[in-house]
Task: structure prediction
Amino acid sequence: MERLGVPETFLGRDRELSLFLDWLANIQPDAPWILSVHDAEPDPARRGGIGKTWFLRACVSLARQRFPHLAVVQVDFFRVADRDRLVIARRVVERLQAAYPHWQARAFAETLESFASQGYLSSLYPEKDVADIRIRDSLSEALARDVQELLPYLPEKELQLLLVFDTFELVERSPQVAVLGLGQLFPERYGLPHVKVLLAGRNPLDWQHPTWHGREKEVLELALPPFSPAEVRLYLARELAELPDSADAGEANEAAADSEAPVLAAERQARSIERLYELTAGRPILVGLACDLLARRLLTLDELVAFPQGRFEEQLVVRINDLERPLNWLILVLAHVYHRLSAPLLSWLLTQVRLTEAGEQVSVEEWLAALRQLSFVRAAGEGDELALHDEMRRLVVHYCWERQDPDRRFRRELSRAVISYYEQQNEQALSEQEWQASRVELLAHWLTMDVEEGLRRFQRLFGPATVGWRSGFARTLLETVRDYEPTLTPAQRWQLRLWEAQLLRIEEQPHLAQALLERLQQEADPSWLASQEEALSYEFARCALQQQQLLQTIHYYEQCLDLAQRRGDEEEASTLQGQLGYVYRRLGQWDEALRCYRASLAYYQQRGSRAWYANLLNSIGQVYRLQGRIEEALRYCLLGLRVREELWSQGKLDERAIGLSHSTLALIYLESGELLQAERHFRHAFECYAHVGYRTGLAATYNRLGQVALLKGQLEEANTWFKQAEALVTGFDEEVFINSQYYQGRVAAEQGHWQEALTHWQCACEHARHLQDRYQLVTSLCDLVEALSHLGRHEEAQAAWREARTIAEEEGYCLLLGRGEEVLGDLALAEKRVEEAFQHYVDSCAWMTHHNFLEYHKAQRRLVGRLLSLPLEKVPPTAHLVSESWRQRGLAEPYPELYQACEEIAQLLSIPG
Result:
């Protein structure tokens, strides 16, 4: 292929570069938009050092030549600061503004400035990081508005943005650290029509990871092999103008007299190069190091290829110790400092650690320049910051440091100096990204100095990072500790697993977190497990709740509660009781929910957070609403609203909480049929959410207003509300999105458009499965049964009902089981299968008795209404069927209303014809 535009220092990879250009030029809608480059080596332990970074640089050069106006954004996850969604978003904005000078991302810049002026982006306020949900939402919304203004400037059929991500293996477990928009999957497109992403990491993509599951068609994979023998020859020829000759002078004189000497020398050199290829396996990192050593005449090619195969890597790397001073020491320092070595840091180290001989002249700039000449040294950031290639770092630590510093004494001295360098910096002058990078580097050196102290410092950083939703920073901290895992005690390794499970849950991967916790229970020592019982139970509870496994959630929360009460921790116990109340409410176990809420309320009424007290008042009101105790529900919710309004007036609460109170009040009025009052409070809630930019609340309120319109029979208006909710949360909030799909299906069903209803409910089911929201899945499956039956797809309807019933019985969803039986009854009645229909109606009423008295009464009234709609001659026998079925279930005594109603109807109709 034509290599115009490829850097002169780059060689080979012609097939791969040709594939890259073809992929880049193809912007058809069905074309893969992600090119994933990874090592072809099948053994994970031998991956790395294959030249991916070199390849990416060549690709970027070609892209810029072929597409001069293309915005190219380069991100290297090796740099800690690049593992930050805001850094990447800012870089995208800068490159787009450079490519399209008539456009400015004003809304994004103003929003960013607003948060910065409030201290949210300062290193002094790490708990207010941009990963905070509200800030991310605001920034992504602002950028989306800006991009809408950019669209008219974009060429319709040309690529607009190329994102290049290097060293992906460092974030492959949590790529969401690079995504600004909530709910977006990595990599983000930023609302642009034609975006390409070039991704390079050691490993192939994991198609079972939530980020990549089901996305195979979006990705083109490119396995990068080692250098070929021809490429090794080219590399050596380019790097070494004259290869050192190992022949002694006598052999040289003899060869000079021989007319065939040049031919023999060329053949010997070719054999040596072939041997070097075998020894290095064509790995560019080793070939490059070999050239570095040959060029400095530390050994000859003949000596190099004489190394034994099994020890070649070791004997090659240890020769770094033979490099001229101070270059040999600088490489070791670079391997230990790891993330970055700058001129100021090196100057500081020279004052703290003995790196030079007495009287030796020091030129920091010359030393750094010498390092830059080595093939395995890379730029680590802006300016003069350098780092060792990550694979070479591993080799240097293993083969050089362990020989030079077996007791790690000198490395601890270096770490002490690095710590003092960062600790004397002015934190206030650091950006958030610089602050994070320095904390990660400090953590690594504290772990080198003292593992226990390092872990204590890790905890102090990790805790706020997880609570504040700064999961990207938390992940980097965790991976830093993981590098030191061989030095940890068994108890420390188990604790590390527990921290990782906590982080996986926060990263919304509860199934992976749960699997890790279960493995930990099998592997850890029983005494350690006993000491961590409460922490383990709490993590299991949170994982179960995220997956809507409500009975499991209760089991683990109750374990936590028992332990907290034994410890005498009243505050923790009351918080857990409030959480238990929420889960019981979700299950429809109202008495248990009230018991837990009231126990929690008793504590917070006397002490603790007034905001939590208001939450409990609102939650108790919710339960009363669901029980049909409308007056009590209104009383508690109005009181909760009053407390929240007072806290808001004092600046101790934002308007989101007030919106939640209005939303609950609206639901109470909706339940009692007061639609105007319900609508008024929903609109109050909407205003509160709009003031704080709470997108989920806004979309949920759209759905609620749609429900009001649906109850009024205003189907078109209802559908408009539901579609607005969908538009607001698509790719952002799956739970509200599912809800909007469900209700759009209900509108279509009311209109008799069963195929359209089916499409919406299938979509809701698919998203509920992905979210592992079992409650919404069962809700949608029940309605799916109805649509499939109306469309004559009876086998599919039966399969949907079997799945719905299985999940509902596992999770104790009595309300949904009752609704499902009612749907089956309606379908049977429509087909004149009267006896079967009323058996389903009886089953529905029976399930509702387990849910609450209010729903049971509603179901009973609906059954009686359907009974009286039958032809008169069929009413008495059907009434007897219902009463007898009710009696056989043992429900006639505890719930006599249905039995008595059917007996009375049968008696009243027993009259002469």
